[in-house]
Amino acid sequence: MLIGPVLVFHHMKCIRTDPNCFLALADALGQDVGPVGKPTATHCSKRFWLAPMTDFLLAALPIATILFLMIKANWGAARAGAAAWFVTVAIAMIAFGAPTDMLIIAQAKGVMLALYILYIVWAALILYFAAEEAGAIKTIGRAIRQLTDDRPLQLLILGYVFATFLQGVAGFGVPIAVIAPLLLGMGFSPVIAVAAPMIGHSWSVLFGNMATSFEALIGVTGIPGTELTHYSAILLGLSGFTCGAAVLWLDGGFRTVRRRIVPLVLIAGVMGVVQYLMANYGVWTLGGLTAGIAGIVTSIIVTRFWKPHPDDVAETTEDDHHHMPLIEALTPYLVFMVIVGIATFIPPVEDFLSGLRLTFDFPAVSTDLGWNIDAESAKPIAIFGHPGALLLYTAAISFAFFKIRGRYDNGIARRIWQRTVKSGLPTSIGMVPVIGLAIIMDHAGMTYALAEGGAALFSGSFAIAYPVVAPAIGALGAFMTGSTNNSNVVFGMFQRHTAELSGISTALVLAAQATGASLGSMLAPSKILVGCSTVGLSGKEGPVLSVVLKTGVLLTALCGFMALGLLLIAMIGG
Questions:
Q1: pLDDT tens column, 542-563
Q2: Per-residue pLDDT band at 104 (split at 50, 70, 90)
Q3: CA distances (Å), origin 99, targets 17, 362, 447
Q4: CA separation for the pair 339, 355 (Å, rounded)
Q5: Per the UniProt record, which residue ranges are transmembrane (predicted)?
Q6: How do beta strands 361-362 and 357-358 pair?
Q7: Which end of the chain is more exposed for a tag (fewer CB within 10 A), N or C?
Q8: Of 46, 25, 15, which Cα lies nearest the Cα of 368?
Q9: Long-range contacts (CB closer than 8 Å, 24 or more residues apart) made by 360-365
Q10: How large is the average pLDDT for residues 6-30?
Q11: What pTM did the predictor assign?
């Protein structure tokens, strides 16, 4: 018998605090799960008897507020985020029973997470302006134009392939912070410059950056990674193709995609296959990195044979009067990759850099209606081993290198700092309320209420179609928490229980969750703020959000139907 996944949501509070409550729920629904004891009714959430759709509509108000203000009213992220924060606090207190101490703790966690991200933002800005003032950005753009005259293919190589590679080595918003200004320097509009890497890197988040998000899913669900890699790598590979197509679509629509279908299939196919092989041979920690390297090599080969359509030849621009060899221009990014490699793959160095950490311990809190949040520590900031620190080391070395090479005028350090502050300050102000409202929603149970409403559409006899909505729940988690990792932690066990009660493949549902969470990273407001700060769009993030939101919804929906297709194939074959 298929049990509607919506029923699981009503008991998620007790499942999180007492695993036996899941077994009691299954027993009540007539599922034979073996001999277990029944918990008392007080273990379960008091919201069980309230209409889930009412909670869904109330929980959706903060999201609707920030989307409306940014997209329709053209408010900046800082202003819209502050307004949505007040809406979130009011709903959390009145409708979801969040006490004052929970709100304070949730916002404190938001500040810590904002500090973690802003460390990257400010360091990336310093590195970018150090390279830009030396003329390196113009030189890199010129080199890519020499690699291929095909403007959309240039966008694909940087916004999709190079973004995949950077996600493999760094993550945490670094691909957007590095690539957006490069695309801007090549003549792409600020919106495309930010949206392309936002979309292009998202498919590789799960197995990128040492597969930390995938490891989190394994840890929270208790399912071995070897059981999850098959479906996860397939869905991610297919989604990688759609992400590449979406990047091309940004610069000319469907016609551009149709004209580049051959290089797109070759590049996306190679990256997807390499990631699949790495993941299924147990080396998933290097899946994103090796896929990115394979994509770069394939791109170089493809551009040697690909001839652009006359309508898509990139315009040539005059060279900067400071002619710079390509290898010199690439020095900051080569140094960055070396530093990341040393800090990541040499254990003594990693241990040394991670020795000094900034973190705080937060107590357990609960709402008046019974939603519990366990005691936990804030995400630690390794002062000397954080991705932001690695960017700062790179910036310092690059600055000294360009200074020795005579690429700077007098007063350059002051000018770099002034440009950094001008771009970074608005982003910093806007990030605190945006991240804060996301964590408040999670702690008050509002994020789960949103997922509950989505799953309600697939209850009863429609439960077999649940894989369609599973990626959307993963994407929702990434959007609200700003992290694929956090989405897997928040929704991983729920997805497992839903699959088991519905009688469908647990591995497939968890793969759909993980893929949706990976794609949902393109929607993270914190990453949008990071990208916009590097291209002069601070306070004008609405157009970027509009583009990535439409794209993210479409790609997540496609992923859901891919997951359903895999389920049907497995059922027919089985």
A1: 899 999 999 999 999 999 999 9
A2: very high
A3: 19, 15, 17
A4: 17
A5: 48-71, 83-105, 111-131, 152-170, 176-196, 203-223, 229-249, 261-278, 284-306, 326-346, 381-402, 423-441, 453-480, 501-524, 544-572
A6: unpaired
A7: C
A8: 46
A9: 360/108, 360/112, 362/105, 362/108, 362/109, 363/105, 365/99, 365/101, 365/102, 365/105, 365/106, 365/443
A10: 39
A11: 0.73
